[in-house]
Amino acid sequence: MKIIIDRFEANYAVCEKEDRSMINIDISQIPTNSREGDVLNIEDEIILVDKKATNIRQKHIEEITKDLWEN
Amino acid sequence: MNIKEKISKIPGFKKSKSKIKKLTSTLLCFIIISILILSFKEYIANDKFDEVVDYLKNIDNTTNVINNITNTSKDIKVHFIDVGQADSILIQQGNNSMIIDGGNNADGSLVTKYIKNQGITKLDYVIGTHVHEDHIGGLDDVINTYEVDKILFPKQISTTNTFENFVMSVTNKGMKLYSPKVGEIFKLGEATFEIMAPNSTSYEDANEYSIVIKLTYGNNSFLLTGDAEAVSESQMIATGLDLNADVLKVSHHGSKSSTTQEFLNRVKPKYAVISVGKDNSYGHPNQLTMDRIKSAGIPVYRTDEQGTIIATSDGKNITFSFNAGVTE
Description:
Helices cover 20% and strands 38% of the residues of chain A. Chain A is built from one helix and five strands. The interface between A and B is medium-sized, with 30 and 31 residues.
């Protein structure tokens, strides 16, 4: 399962599932270098940052927001 | 064939004749209802009139007539909609309205329905304070549903699908975002709002990008802070803008990283409002923040306790009302 870190609140990473529903994951369960916007890969209860997927998402968002602001 | 028959043979004649009849009777109905209601207003005390308006609001056919009346009210209404552990603030002044944040992803239909129930069909402004899901989650639904004049959003992006949905709702409308500058003043009917933050273009913490506005109506003002934290608060103090306000929307659901003592001293609010979910997992509002507010003797209204909180101002005085039953 792939999820995206939306934000950190207290002891939790608040993550977005593929169906846009949200889950709290205890910070102790995710890699210490995790940042907001990282795509996390959860397999057999092991959570890793999916750097490739994160880069793809980052590039895609940069592309669709290129001319988004009028100023 | 006489003239009458000839005329009746002209295509569309009968149709337009009945249209005119329909229009005339609709107009007559409208005038009669208007006269009835206006004469009601003459003879009923103000609070009783409000009761009558509320009653009539439930009757579908009169909705449009009633909306015209409530919208002519000079008061400004600031609705802190109960969206659980999230933010959504609807502001109305006369026929003008705006929304700041749209709750979580799951709150989209609740927020759009709430706007509709106020008789609003168009929003002058939509403000997304910053990228987090508990602020922009329901905004795509709002933008997809209503005519919107201007969308204010800081220069900040996120990789989430929530953010992508928000972006798509903007671009599908052929619109762009506007990133406001500190000190800029916007008009909302007879009210104005001034941009107080963000005072920088780069922060480590995404919350610090929050657009903060000071809404002013007559002698009353509201400081609406999004999730701005201590860094942004100290910058707001440093810019020397007048932060003093009657109502403070306590930043970041009352977290400990916001609402510093110095900031509170500058704002000197008469009332504090906290948008926060019941039994949330994050310990919001933080006890230290609550202590700072309470030791200053400021009454606190919370959406987890009161439900939706509505602050109404006539430009001189602010009154609060609550609607616990607004959430689904």
